[in-house]
Amino acid sequence: MENIVVFITASNEEEAAKIALALVGERLAGCVNIVKGIRSIYRWQGKVEDEAEVLMIAKTRRELFGALSKKVKELHSYSVPEVIAFPVAEGSAEYLDWLKEVTG
Q1: What is the pLDDT of residues 61-87, one digit of tens each?
Q2: Bridge partners of 47?
Q3: How many domains does the chain have?
Q4: What 8-state DSSP symbol labels residue 26?
Q5: Which of 10, 4, 32 minimizes the C-alpha distance to 76?
């Protein structure tokens, strides 16, 4: 079993909370942190954008990524939401055991 951390951006805290509650409620993530006050500068449809966003950091298992990504796309206001995953190289055994217990 491989654990992952997933970064997801949202337009505001309300949207992030709606997505986070669904991910945890459906056991697709064990925990989602919501970080307010990020500034994103990116290229979209030929223009450079500079927007305030909210970052979600979801902890889950790799085998749940497909379902998690699908749920995010269902609930998200963006046509192309950021949903990117990174492997967890190490973690406390107790936390990783808890993550396994509460997901899937």
Answers
A1: 999 999 999 999 999 999 999 999 999
A2: 44
A3: 1
A4: T
A5: 10
pTM of the predicted structure, to 2 decimals: 0.95
Question: What's CA 98's distance to the chain center, in Å?
Answer: 18
User: Cα separation of 62 and 81, whole Å?
Assistant: 19
Closest CA to 3 of 60, 65, 46, 55: 60
Beta bridge partners of 48: 43
The per-residue pLDDT for range 6-44, each reduced to its tens digit, is 999 999 999 999 999 999 999 999 999 999 999 999 999
Residue with tokens 């942190």: 33
- Residue 69 backbone dihedrals phi, psi, to 5 degrees: -60, -40
- Type of residue at 91: G
> What CATH number is associated with residue 74?
3.30.70.120
Report the percent of the chain where pLDDT is more than 70.
Answer: 100
